[in-house]
Amino acid sequence: MDFKDQLKVLGDRAMKLKDQIQTEEATKNALIMPFLTCLGYDVFNPLEVTPELVCDIGLKKGEKIDYAILKDGQPVILIECKHWAQSLDIHDGQLLRYFHVSKAKFSLLTNGLIFRFYTDLVKPNIMDEKPFLEMNITDLRDNIVDEVKKFHKSYFDVGSIVNTAEELKYTNELKAKIHQVINSPTPEFVRFFARDIYPNMITQKVLDQFTNLLKKSFSVYLSDHVTDRLKSALTKEEKKVEEQTDVIDIPVSDSPSITTTEEEIEAFHIVRSILRKKIAVNRIVHRDVQSYFGILLDDNNRKPICRLYLNGVKKFIGIFDTSKKETRHEISCMDDIYKFDKSLLDTVDSYVKNPVASE
After folding, report:
1. In terms of Cα–Cα distance, which of 165, 180, 146 is closest to 106?
2. Residue 244 neighbours by CB under 8 Å, 6+ apart
3. Pairing of strands 106-110, 74-81
4. Cβ distance 142 to 28 under 8 Å?
5. How far apart are CA 283 and CA 272, in angstroms?
6. What are the tens digits of pLDDT across the range 171-196?
7. Residues 220-267: pLDDT tens digits?
8. Whose CA is closest to 173, among 135, 236, 129?
């Protein structure tokens, strides 16, 4: 299961459990500790994740942060936790104080649903007022997940994250500014556009007229842009389906980025055991590609028998009809493949007019 799938499972779990979570401590146990586990950290190893790390602040002794992630014995990420129903907007001041007295370069403020990541881009050793990255685990976005993945134990690199943090910070601020301008354009912004379009003097009446026109124009433009993007995506998907139907140019499994799992090998042997009554098993081969595990007749791309999708949260088998159209069916375990024995045999029959006796 990849990182995004793990977060998706955690997000679904959070939505089911949150109404039963009554305390901050329960939020930590049910939502936040599992998130740290998704990041690859052993939450039960104090050398990796230290709970209640002491952060003395001035004359205040014994002040504690909820968690600290350690690297080489030093805190690198401070984590302040709140109850899932609490707004995070009123709590960043406490984390700011902790950050100032720590050697950590990053801090995380979370209620188990929203995760806000901070660093010190404005002034060294002083936590920024605004996070450079925010993730809602119940509404995952691919670009956000990619950035959060950089905090995974396997990929964590302070320099790499800092290099992208500034760009993320300014991108977020620009997006907020664009949103503000689109919904409430300033007179100066309206005049900027009106000067190039309206030939006469821009009076207050004209300014009011163009303010409304500009808001409508933004709305239409964004709608058209989204529609064009959807059309383009649908066209690409249709082309992809056509290419998959023809089953042309499937990469072989010698790519170093592809690992054939024990489940996939088990599935392959099950398919061979089903088909051996009509075809010699040495004619049945498998090819493992990035998105699925394919089983072919005669090692021929144009003779697909089935495809297995076993690396996601849910598992599927793709069955081909006589026109090579694929239909996916969900399976809960490898034994479920036996339920499709007739379909698999019919697929082979469509390729072979005179089935070879089994070995």
Report:
1. 165
2. 326
3. parallel
4. no
5. 9
6. 888 888 888 888 888 999 999 988 88
7. 888 888 787 777 777 666 665 555 545 444 444 444 467 888 899 999
8. 129
- CA distances from residue 266 to 134, 252, 263, 308, 316 in whole angstroms, order as listed: 41, 19, 5, 11, 14
333: part of which helix (H) or strand (E)? none
Looking at residue 209, its amino acid is Q
CB 279 within 8 A of CB 352: yes
**Per-residue DSSP letters for 284-323?**
EEEEE-SS-EEEEETT-TT-EEEEEE-SSSSEEEEEE-TT
pTM over 0.70: no
User: Is the sign of the CA dihedral 242, 247, 252, 253 positive or negative?
Assistant: positive
For the chain, residues with pLDDT lower than 70 are 55-62, 91-93, 235-257, 353-359
CB atoms within 10 A of CB 311: 17
The answer to whether 32 and 43 are in contact (CB under 8 A) is: no
